[in-house]
Design goal:
The structure is a homodimer of 717-residue chains. With 717 residues, chain A is mostly helical. Among the domains of chain A are: 231 residues, Clc chloride channel (Orthogonal Bundle); 169 residues, CBS-domain (Roll), CATH 3.10.580. The first copy, chain A, is 55% helix and 6% strand. Chain A contains 25 helices and twelve strands. Chain A has a three-stranded mixed sheet. In chain A, helix 24 links the parallel strand 10 and strand 11. In chain A, helix 8 packs antiparallel against helix 9, helix 10 packs across helix 18 and helix 10 runs parallel beside helix 19. The two termini of chain A are 51 Å apart. The interface between A and B is large, with 114 and 113 residues. Strand 11 of chain A pairs antiparallel with strand 12 of chain B, so a sheet runs across the interface. The structure holds adenosine-5'-triphosphate (2 copies) and magnesium ion (2 copies). One adenosine-5'-triphosphate sits at the interface of chains B and A.
Chain lengths: 717, 717
């Protein structure tokens, strides 16, 4: 059911209070608003950057400590090491799932479908609360540090959005930190702009990709994008980049424990292949096809899993969720520790002079060529190198150039199957979980597999398996998430190499096309499952044969007269759950006239405050009074991510119910209208481009008062 | 006057012919359309890429040949060299200005204001014709090869747009190459999408910046941007990158004469400073302020110059234009050759082992440390290094790292003043001219000046003057063009260095803010001068106090009845020059009803073809006939960049004038409407976001037939 979601409105309600407030404000005030907006953008950048640094630092330290301890113990006993490894992972995952289930249920999963929904115009309750933020931060640390097959990038996007929303309202609603100087941000429109900034900041922080962040936000919110917003979003992303970079510089001096070793995603492949010959395009296209197929399969499997979890497993209560997560943690640990034990070790390759790659690496350190369960000191275990390692390092190893023949086909295949299964199973457990890094792991594994065959087939020198691994990663993400430009730019930014852009585009194009043949993107599927009705950017094909009137069906429009009895309001509001009602007035000559649209939330504010109740059923201006200005604009603002006032909380005396309210000063006097036989395609474009919530379908007009063309909108100063 | 401009319509006219054609088409046809769209995107990419390669190749070869010849001659006589240098430049510029004035007048200038206008919704006649394309290509070669203070990047954007538009209509309209399979692109909407692709391709080709190209197109057309378009635009840009790269690879083998030496902009600064300390931020901010001031001054001066040229100088005829351009060419040559003669030469610095920089460079080759008019063989002339050189190499020298103290403050200052003046004077002559490269030259000069002071002030080792030059370039472009994100990304892509992104942003932010305090951006100012009424993305402040009705003023709406006499049509069309007319019908009960909007261009097609004339003044459906389908949709398409049919060309017999036409099948049955008292801000948003041309202002509706919310727009398949 759609009862937990509610639409947002990008429109400004130009009611009387709004116009009063506008009139009071001068140019100076506008400058002040701009200043505050930029200041908030700065704060969002700093906040998100710091949150990202904190998460990375914690994860790296937990993971580093875990692996060094395990390596120490397995010098003596592999079994004891195994137990310790499982136990540490279990504790971390347990803490994460405990935080999520008992404290911040809205923080589970990646959060991107919900944020996507928010930017598309749907408010899911609870996603932007302070407790969600906290849960997300600490939950991510536990789940990623605990070695589950999930990433911390998706959650960071959610974290960025939370930070933005909280800053915009001056802190948590519950603890009433709302300060006066923030009252300028009173509309849902401003809040959505802030969340857009936060979302971009999250991507920028997750991947250290400021441009990618902007484009990500852009691809999601293209409909009401404005140039000024673009610049502000970009500013926020750049601030994030600066913060993260400063923190990393500070960490390089050894202030942050294990952090220096891994952490922020940058898989520099600058030493690798930069050129490509035309015959390589075929295997690359093949990678694209695999990516599309595996990605679509991933979406489908996770959809079934989530469906089953929501409707069956998770209904059984919190305890089941906790047990489930712990079970998955134990299985993951067992597989990642156990499987490499069955691999035969490989002798180290001849060390090149200045490649900087040690074989085997020093025990307990991150890096290539892990020596694990090997007889000889000069050997390494190729499966352990990717499986018994942090994900960041595994990816770095898969991407690495100049390490041809490091992995065996058998090892990569084993890893691919196991990790794919783990990723599918883990998806949807009650922990914060991103799909970006697992996707890169899966993709780069089969990419490297293809690369191995290409290397041995073409027998050329300058072909690098690592480049194919990168393309594989891009193809899987393209096949699963179906993002285009932003994904492309993110891949370029995390590999810090502009030269591979055309190749990445090629595989993305193919994998997206292949994936689209089967199902929708991961986030869209998940959003649909969560009953978040996303409006796509393009109207459906059959809409061109429908009219606006047909879309409304045989509705009986619920409307209010201009002056309405309180008891009527209450009964009408009770009788349905619409959120917007047209207001109709009768002129002297008895004709009706639609004078505007009133929102349920505004009606509830009026009912609660009661100051506008009047005894007479006449409109206030006809009684010679001025229109009342008893309300501040900010009173009408609905608190973020919550239901707002409920009718049940308002108590009415019998006298109250006999009073009247004149709605004229509070309604939106000019909602957008469409004539009844406009084709639904055009209606859709209007609705979606302007970010509307309600659109009135009206009869054809009887006459035209004027024509507006471009010339009429160019005002001379 | 605005008589040469006409608005474009992003709306689809859903008239009867359109709906007929839609109904005939199945899903297969839709697939075909998509295929053709992508194929066209591919062609646009290839075409623009090849055009860019051709221009670069020619310019490089002309310039290379010019400089080697001059260097050869000055071994014997400086005076003879001077004459030859002037003469070659003169011939090149003369050919350029001749092509422009006599063959393709629409190709003068950068073309970006016009393209910006086109994407904003205004069609300037002649900008997208075949002859404009040819003129632009060959004109650019002449003007840039001739050493004027202008660049070839702006023209490339225009070239990309022309190619896109011509491909979209299957060739030149004049030579009727229009092929059947392109008839799918019949609306202005499709054409505008194509031009968007072409515009991005142009930027991508000019700067080898695919992402920058996408963002450039995006910043200009944010209003009707759609995700699918984004992906297509990106694809086109990437194709351009591939084409250019392939061509350059081919040229590296020595197939293209001088081309290997310079050519496509990539000023790699990867060897330079990558880090910055906090005390450097102050001089960097200072650069931003200078950039804002100088940029705003540049805009203002060029505005005066262009104003004067348009209203006074260029009115005197073609000959004046040609003489003017030649004069400027001679002056430019004289200054760039003469001024370095007055400089004292500097001894070469100690060569570092593997810096790869020779001092002095071999004569006649491009590069750093030009030996010009020096006594000693081991000396160089710092002014000649930037002035007596191609602009690409001059910029490369200004950006170069590890060459501290190469330039003297005096030399740089001289160059700054002279070049700034030249750039201002050259702007607006009748040759194709971009402002990007001159802007970079100016900016990097003062940037390097500031850098010199920083180096000598802070006395740290890792500060590079080249980095400051880059920041200076960004600041000047920001202060003059006021682009934001796209400029930033372009700067990053042409320097191939992601690490300086935050710094570039900082200076851009400052210089844009400073510049905005004085005037509008270069392109906006120029567009205003050319009477191109750009709609900004944000409504003006005072619009919130106006209503739609007030914007229309006291218009007397010119409308048509449904069935109208031909003579009436003719007289109404003659009496005004509106392009859209509401059509009003009378119902049986005598009430009027607005049934749609008819465009002047459609009326003219009807009048010309005459097949729809009827004798009876009754609507056709009331006579029991079916609606006529005598027209193909493509007949209604206005040819690109031309006035279309004129009323004067149609001949009427007296019988014709007594006939009637039923307009119902041809009108747009559902134009967008707004109620009369909607605030102009909202009207503006609607108009601009949907890319409209006409908007009907109507009375408030009497009743509401239905409400459309998000739920009604989510159709289940
Ligand atoms: N005032 C109204 N009178 C009659 N039908 C309405 C009214 N408002 C909405 N509807 C219809 O009711 C159905 C459910 O919409 P719903 O009531 O959930 O809209 P809403 O709550 O106002 O907006 P949203 O749910 O998007 O926040 C839709 O088909 C819509 O067209
Ligand atoms: N049919 C009409 N009747 C009366 N006034 C009109 C009509 N159409 C446009 N106008 C008004 O005439 C003025 C000039 O507009 P103009 O006639 O140039 O519009 P247009 O030619 O239809 O559109 P554009 O010039 O943008 O292509 C504007 O103020 C506009 O509101
Ligand atoms: Mg609802
Ligand atoms: Mg006009």
């Amino acid at each position: 059911n759609g009862s937990t979601v509610e639409s947002l409105d990008y429109e400004v309600v130009e009611n009387f209070a709004y116009r009063e407030e506008q009139a009071k404000r001068g140019k100076l005030y506008m400058g002040y608003v701009v200043l505050v907006k930029w200041f908030l953008a700065l704060l969002i950048g700093i906040g998100t950057g710091l949150a990202a640094v904190f998460i990375n630092l914690s994860v790296e330290n937990f993971a580093g400590w875990k692996f060094s301890l395990t390596f120490q113990i397995i010098q003596k006993s592999y079994f004891a090491g195994f137990l310790v490894y499982i136990l540490i992972n279990l504790v971390l995952v347990l803490s994460s799932v405990y935080i999520i289930t008992c404290f911040a249920p809205a923080a589970s999963g990646s959060g991107i479908p919900e944020i996507k929904g928010y930017l598309n115009g749907i408010d899911t309750h609870g996603i932007l609360l302070f407790r969600t933020l906290i849960g997300k931060i600490f939950g991510s640390i536990g789940s990623v540090g605990g070695g589950l097959a999930l990433g911390k990038e998706g959650p960071l996007v959610h974290i960025g959005a939370c930070i933005a929303s909280l800053l915009g309202q001056g802190g948590s609603t519950k603890y009433h930190l709302r300060s006066r100087w923030l009252q300028v941000f009173s509309s849902e429109r401003d809040r959505r702009d802030l969340v857009t900034c936060g979302c971009a900041a999250g991507v920028a922080a997750a991947f250290r990709a400021p441009v990618g962040g902007v484009l990500f936000a852009l691809e999601e919110v293209t409909s009401w994008w404005r140039s000024q917003l673009m610049w502000r979003v970009f500013f926020t992303s750049a601030i994030v980049a600066v913060v993260v970079r400063t923190a990393m510089g500070w960490c390089k001096d050894g202030n942050c424990g294990h952090f220096g070793a891994g952490g922020f995603i940058i898989w520099d492949i600058s030493g690798g292949q930069e050129d490509y010959s035309f015959e390589e395009l075929l295997p690359m296209a093949f990678i694209g096809v695999i990516g599309g197929l595996l990605g679509a399969l991933f979406n489908q499997l996770t959809l079934y899993m989530t469906h089953w979890r929501r409707n069956y497993l998770h209904k059984k209560g919190i305890r089941v969720k906790i047990i489930e997560a712990c079970l998955i943690s134990v299985i993951t640990s067992a597989i990642s520790f156990g499987l490499p034990l069955f691999r035969r070790c490989t002798p180290c390759p001849e060390a090149e002079a200045n490649s900087g790659i040690e074989c085997p690496q020093a025990p307990g350190m991150f890096g290539n060529y892990v020596n694990f369960y090997c007889q000889n000191n000069k050997e390494y275990n190729d499966l352990a190198t990717i499986f018994f390692n942090t994900q960041d390092d595994a990816i770095r190893n898969l991407f690495s150039a100049k390490t041809a023949h490091e992995f065996s086909a058998q090892g990569l295949l084993t890893f691919l199957v196991m990790f794919y299964t783990l990723a599918v199973v883990t998806f949807g457990t009650a922990v914060p979980a991103g799909q970006f890094v697992p996707g890169i792991m899966i993709g780069s594994t089969y990419g490297r597999l293809v690369g191995m065959f290409v290397v041995s087939f073409y027998k050329k020198l300058n072909i690098e398996e690592g480049t194919y691994a990168l393309l594989g990663a891009a193809s899987f993400l393209g096949g699963s998430m179906r993002m285009t430009v932003s994904l492309c730019v993110i891949m370029v930014e995390i590999t810090n190499n502009l030269k591979l852009l055309p190749l990445i585009m090629l595989v993305l194009l193919i994998s997206k096309a292949v994936g689209d043949a089967f199902n929708e993107g991961l986030y869209e599927e998940q959003a649909r499952l969560r009953a978040i009705p996303l409006l796509e950017s393009r109207p459906k094909y059959q809409m061109r044969y429908m009219t606006a009137k047909e879309a409304c069906g045989s509705q009986n429009v619920v409307y209010f007269p201009r002056v309405v009895k309180v008891s009527d309001i209450v009964s009408i509001l009770r009788s349905n759950d619409h959120n917007g009602f047209p207001v109709v007035d009768h002129s002297r000559s008895g004709e009706t006239l639609v004078i505007g649209l009133i929102l349920r939330s505004h009606l509830l504010v009026l009912l609660q405050s009661k100051v506008d109740f009047q005894h007479s059923p006449l409109p206030c201006d006809s009684r010679g009074d001025l229109l009342p200005i008893r309300h501040n604009l900010s009173e009408f603002v609905k608190p973020v991510s919550s239901k707002g006032i409920s009718l049940r909380d308002i108590h009415f005396t019998p006298d109250d119910l006999e009073m009247y309210i004149d709605l004229a000063p509070f309604l939106n006097p000019s909602p957008y209208v469409v004539p009844e036989d406009m084709s639904l395609t055009k209606v859709y474009n209007l609705f979606r481009q302007l970010g509307l919530r309600h659109l009135l379908v009206v009869p054809r007009p009887a006459r035209v008062i004027g024509m507006i063309t471009r010339k009429d909108l160019i005002l001379e100063d």
